[in-house]
Amino acid sequence: MAKVPGMGQGNIGALQDNRPKTPEQLETSKTVLSFLLQIKKMGREKPKTPEELEDRFIEYFEKCSTEGLPPTIEGLALVSGWCRSTFYDIAEGKVSVEFSDTIKNAKDYVCSYDSVMAANGKVNAPVYIFRAKNFYDMRDEQKIQIEAQPGADKPQNAEDIVNALPEAPGAIEVESEIVN
Fold first, then answer.
1. N or C: which terminus of the chain carries fewer CB neighbours within 10 A?
2. Which has more pLDDT, 36 or 171?
3. For the chain, what is the HEC assignment?
4. How far apart are CA 102 and CA 47, in angstroms?
5. Considering the entire predicted model, what is its pTM?
6. pLDDT digits (tens, 9 = 90+) for 111-134
7. Which of 2, 56, 69 is nearest to 29 (CA)?
8. What are the Cα distances from residue 2, in Å, to 8, 90, 128, 137, 151?
């Protein structure tokens, strides 16, 4: 294997040599590249109808099943015929609204797959969390709504509001400052 300048020098920021190093890694790389080429060919042209796009997605999911490779949002974009940014815009209903529901349904399928795999320990938790936050609109947040009860004293300032919040299960104490 040829030496690549800057790779494998161990210093922070150095490029890593991610080329396959074992016969198994090489075979996996070839399988994935061949698969990606097949699905890219499916998306040579933009679909004319939502039904045509749905058929492509179904064919993509079938190929994933046959090859034993996970379906991905990136794979959906490849078979759609649109670049990823346009694919995301369509999914959000910004353009080509007629395709939006078809894309959302396919994304839900991928989300369900990821969820089941994560629940069964087949997907690394940080990977699932990343995908959930970046592709499935999931967030780490808790919304608390405080309403004044009739006859109750109304909070006068931010500190009163914070003190009125219920304590969350498993909460830990932290030092904080209230900024008005």
1. C
2. 36
3. CCCCCCECCCCCCCECCCCCCCHHHHHHHHHHHHHHHHHHHHCCCCCCCHHHHHHHHHHHHHHHHHHCCCCCHHHHHHHHCCCHHHHHHHHCCCCCHHHHHHHHHHHHHHHHHHHHHHHCCCCCHHHHHHHHHHHCCCCCCCCCCCCCCCCCCCCCCHHHHHHHCCCCCCCCCCCCCCCC
4. 12
5. 0.69
6. 999 999 999 999 999 999 999 999
7. 69
8. 12, 43, 35, 43, 79
Q: What's the pLDDT score for residue 161? A: 73
Residues shown for the chain: 180
Report whether 135 contacts 153 (CB < 8 A). no
CA distance 126 to 113: 16
Quote the tokens at residue 129. Answer: 């969390």
Q: Answer yes or no: are the C-beta atoms of 90 and 96 closer than 8 Å.
A: yes
CA distance 107 to 1: 40
Q: Which residues contact 135 (CB under 8 A, 6 or more apart)?
A: 73, 107, 110, 111
Token pair belonging to 100: 């939006």
